[in-house]
Amino acid sequence: MAGLLLRRLGALILTLLVASVVIFGALYLAPGDPATLLVGNKATPAGLQHVRELYRLDDPVHVRYWHWLTGALRGDLGESFTYKQSVWSLIEGRIGTSVLLIGYASVLVLVLGIASGIAGGLHHRAGAAITVVTGVGLATPTYVAAIFLITAFAVELGWFPVFGDGAGLPDRLYHLTLPAAALALTSTAFVAQMTKAAVREEALREHVECARSRGLGEGVIVRRHVLRNALIPITTVAGLTVAGFVAGTVVVEQAFRLDGIGSLLVQATASRDFALVQGICLLLVVVFVVVNVGVDLVNAALDPRLQARRSA
Questions:
Q1: Please, are residues 290 and 13 in contact by the beta-carbon 8 Å criterion?
Q2: What percentage of the chain has pLDDT greater than the value 90?
Q3: Distance of CA 308 to the CA centre of its chain
Q4: How far from chain centre, in Å, is Cα 153?
């Protein structure tokens, strides 16, 4: 297990290093002067000089990258050109909403997706109904789902607020119910489909039939022989789905006017606030890669073959 952990840690560091190069170098791939790109064509010479000093644009590229990378490792992501604040302080003020939204959507996916997938895998009649429902869910884009939920449950029925993220945990969860549902809809359908397929495949294996022939109860068979072996693909799909929410928040936060990281990224992109875009993109990549590594380690702990090799 220690060797696996070291390999995954090495892969994580290498991935983050490559991602940092891509994120930092994106500005310099665009044609024209980077300072002009940041402040616009109507910038004064004094304004251009200020931007060059702020972002060290007169230094060689490798020097600028090293300065940015070492600053990021210390928690210093630079200063926002638009807001005149440190990038990290802006992220810190918005990250709570995004974390709560992702956590809420993840709970919906894990509970509804896995539960319905298990029911569909074990019961054929339920499986047909779940296939139809999840097919509709998979075909519905997140933004369309957001518009439908706002129209149906906020405007027409008035059950939930239209916009905003609330104040206090209960009120914030109430405000985030529709955004979390919109974010989780397609992913819940996908997890349900994959869970159903994994459970059905395990339920048809020979060792399950042998367990039935020995007179074991159906509950014991499902727990010990079906669900335990189906956990690995289910965990992989669920983990990757949760990691994908990091990028999916951009659409949902814009649709529901939430004050989170996704909406901040859109605003920073529109205002060409490059330091802020760099900081948010780096944070999103870090979260995505860390979640993927965590999924790999959980799968290694669940895989009976790895357990056998460790005990040998």
A1: no
A2: 0
A3: 33
A4: 25
User: For residue 276, what are its two tokens?
Assistant: 């802020």
How is the chain split into domains, by residue range?
Answer: 90-311
In this predicted model, what pLDDT tens digit does every residue of 7-27 receive, in sequence order? 777 777 888 888 888 887 776
The residues facing 86 across adjacent strands are 79
Q: Which residues contact 145 (CB under 8 A, 6 or more apart)?
A: 181, 182, 185, 186
Expressed in percent and rounded to 5, the helix, strand and coil fractions of the chain are 80, 0, 20
Please state, in angstroms and rounded to a whole number, the distance separating the CA atoms of residues 76 and 69.
9
39 Rama class: left (phi>0) / alpha (psi -120 to 50) / beta: alpha
What is the fold of 90-311? MetI-like fold (1.10.3720)
Secondary structure class of 234 (helix, strand, coil): helix
Give residue 230's pLDDT band: very low, low, confident or very high (50, 70, 90).
Answer: confident
Residues 6 or more apart whose CB falls under 8 angstroms from that of 106 comprise: 184, 242, 245
Question: Which residue bears the tokens 């359908």?
Answer: 189
Write down the pTM of the prediction.
Answer: 0.80
Per-residue pLDDT of 150-160, as tens digits, reads: 888 888 888 88
Distance between CA atoms of 246 and 161, rounded to whole angstroms? 23
What is the rounded distance in angstroms from the CA atom of residue 56 to the CA atom of residue 65? 10
- How many other CB atoms are found less than 10 A from the CB of residue 172? 18
* CA 201 – CA 189 distance, rounded (Å): 18
